[in-house]
Amino acid sequence: MPRTHAKLCPSCTIGSLTPTSNPAILNCRHCHGVWFEDGSLNQAIAQQHEFIEQYSHELHLGPALRTSDRLCRRCRVPMTHYQLLTHYTTEIDCCPDCDGVWLDKHEIDQVMHSPRLKQALTTLNQKVTWKSWLFQFLTAMPVEYNIQPHRTPWVTRTLVVLCGLIFGTGLLSPAANEWIFLNLALNSETQSPIHFALQLLTYQFVHGGLMHLAGNMYFLWIIGDNLEDALGHSAFLGLYLFMGAVAALIELLVFDSSQGPLLLVGASGAIAALFGLYLMWFRHASLTFMIIIYQKKLAPHWYFLIWSLINLFGMFTAQGGVAWAAHLGGFMLGLLLGYLLRDYIFRKNPLIAMLNGPEAVVQR
Ligand SMILES: [Zn+2]
Ligand SMILES: [Zn+2]
Asked: Are 341 and 274 in contact (CB under 8 A)?
């Protein structure tokens, strides 16, 4: 076999393969694809993940799809196209005779992340069970299916604890409750600008009843952890408080002051804004919806569409006691910021970007 053949790139057939710092990994200078020899791909993947000592990507490959046009650089036999993972449609070329693997440039990151992708897709593709059914049947709350965050969600937990503590304090005595509503709730007739600005933040921690608190905190708990992980702790906190403040200002804008002053409490505005971010960044996640006794996993856009329709209905039928405009305004703001920050979030979180691509298959 002439040596020139073995050095010629199997993909573009123009460039030649040159060894990298690892002699078993060769790189095409022309198309930037990479050739992995004799299990060197498994080594490279294991090196990328602290939690893997030995790896065998052959064990995790999806189905063999067809014979490739490319020839193995050593064996000169046609290679085989495989699906990278069962639920990830990227195709890679493997030699049926030796352990050689060819990866195009755009596939390299996906293959290197494949153990994490597999883990994530397994979680996302879980089916509803009797446990998830019973939970939603008893609580009327959705069950969330999303990737496991890497960071501990300290901010999310602190927000939940603070809201709980303030609610608990209000239960201690009527005087304590009155003090909280007088000072921490947002009052449209507050005169001092500084006090008003502070109320824009503090109103988010006050709740009017146990169901109001429990509903808000449950949603914050299930979606806050993923958003905090994607953004980082301080950016998440800043964005949460900012969006909550803007949601209150939107409610003030549409509020009819002839009905008396507006007294606004609750984390709902900020949490509705989190829904918008979540929809933009976690399209692969699912939230369960229950129709009488039938439980179904829904993509976030379907789930939040139904949620928005319920809010629109509430707003136009003018049902009192709920800040519909703060909910919908917060949600719109979240969608806008989620859209503007999408590329930044995807650059920072390659796994989230890969799961948002068309290659990820999520069964609902
Ligand atoms: Zn090439
Ligand atoms: Zn071969």
From this structure: no
Q: What phi and psi, each to the nearest 5 degrees, are found at residue 267?
A: -85, 5
Give me the sign of the Cα torsion angle 346, 349, 267, 241.
negative
Q: What are phi and psi of 352, to 5 degrees?
A: -65, -40
- Point out the ligand nearest to the CA of residue 76: 2
The ligand that comes nearest to the alpha carbon of residue 11 is: 1
- Cα 354 to middle of ligand 1, angstroms: 24
Span 19-77, pLDDT tens digits? 998 889 999 999 999 999 878 898 888 888 877 788 888 888 888 888 998 999 888 89
- CATH-assigned architecture of domain 127-356: Up-down Bundle (1.20)
Delimiting residues of CATH 1.20.1540.10 domain(s) in the chain: 127-356
Per-residue pLDDT tens digits for 204-252: 999 989 999 999 999 999 999 999 999 999 999 999 999 999 999 999 9
Residue 63 CA to ligand 1 centre (angstroms)? 25
Q: Which token pair is 304?
A: 């939040």
State in Å: Cα 79 to ligand 2 middle. Answer: 8
Q: Is the dihedral of CA 85, 86, 90, 95 positive or negative?
A: positive
- For the CA of 10, the nearest ligand: 1
